[in-house]
ABC transporter related protein (Caulobacter segnis), 279 residues
Amino acid sequence: MNGPASAPAPAAIETPDSETFPIEVRGLVSRFGDHVVHDGLDLKVERGEVLGVVGGSGTGKSVLLNTIIGLKAPDGGHVRLFGGDMRTASRRRWSSIERRWGVLFQQGALFSNLTVRENVSAPLHEHTRLPRREIDEIADLKIAMVGLPAHAALLKPAELSGGMRKRAGLARALAMDPELLFLDEPTAGLDPISAAAFDELIKDLSESLDLTVFMITHDLDSLYAITDRVAVLADKKVVAVAPVHELERSDHPWIKKYFLGPRGRAAASAESLAEARID
Ligand SMILES: Nc1ncnc2c1ncn2[C@@H]1O[C@H](COP(=O)(O)OP(=O)(O)OP(=O)(O)O)[C@@H](O)[C@H]1O
């Protein structure tokens, strides 16, 4: 009875969730004393996507980021990065996961007493045993990759403009060739032209390096310019995850106010204008 008619159907090739979803958050509860920030928050970030994360002030976007990268322990639920749960993963396994992501914090979080090259080199010194000369070369490559001039390598953060500091922070986040990049309000504090240039840089890098990007932002222009989907935090949860144009049609009161308020409409029409120019 082994003829073709009775042969079992070929097994479906299953992609492990860890490959499909570099980030998977299930039923997350986050608390500070009696203050509940997240209560049953679910979110899956797909491989290769640029996910924008929005929500009103204090809805817990930064707490979510800090929890995903292991700076805050969840008070309930699970957070998995590349399939690994930091609460149960061995130190060694967690350290191998840590090498797969980079983060650009809102203030850049650069060491003020180190040069840009030394800042970008820091993760390489921490995680690899490469000789110093090779590390310097990699750092210079990353500095060029983010569009900083070569001489910036020898400057200290205080000697850089706000936009250059963001780029230096990004170069450091990219030092270990991550697959996953976390950005906390990357365009905050930049003038509109620098912000648009930074958006463009993130879009180019995410495409050329095949990065998955988790980006907290208040910047509507960034949402329209570079995200594939947007997750909205409200009511202690993620209340919607969808491409920005679908969110425009949402009935959720906060989403409506956000996208259909004057700033939302301006960002949407700026995008239509840009698309018309490309056509
Ligand atoms: N270390 C902490 N101790 C106590 N409460 C905290 C702590 N960190 C954050 N919170 C509280 O958690 C809530 C969410 O803060 P979070 O910084 O994540 O908000 P956010 O959505 O990123 O806000 P914003 O858009 O203004 O940056 C806030 O009410 C904040 O006061």
About this structure: Residues 32, 37, 55, 57-63 surround adenosine-5'-triphosphate (CB under 6 Å). The CA atoms of residues 262 and 268 lie 10 Å apart. Confidence is low (pLDDT under 50) at residues 1-15.
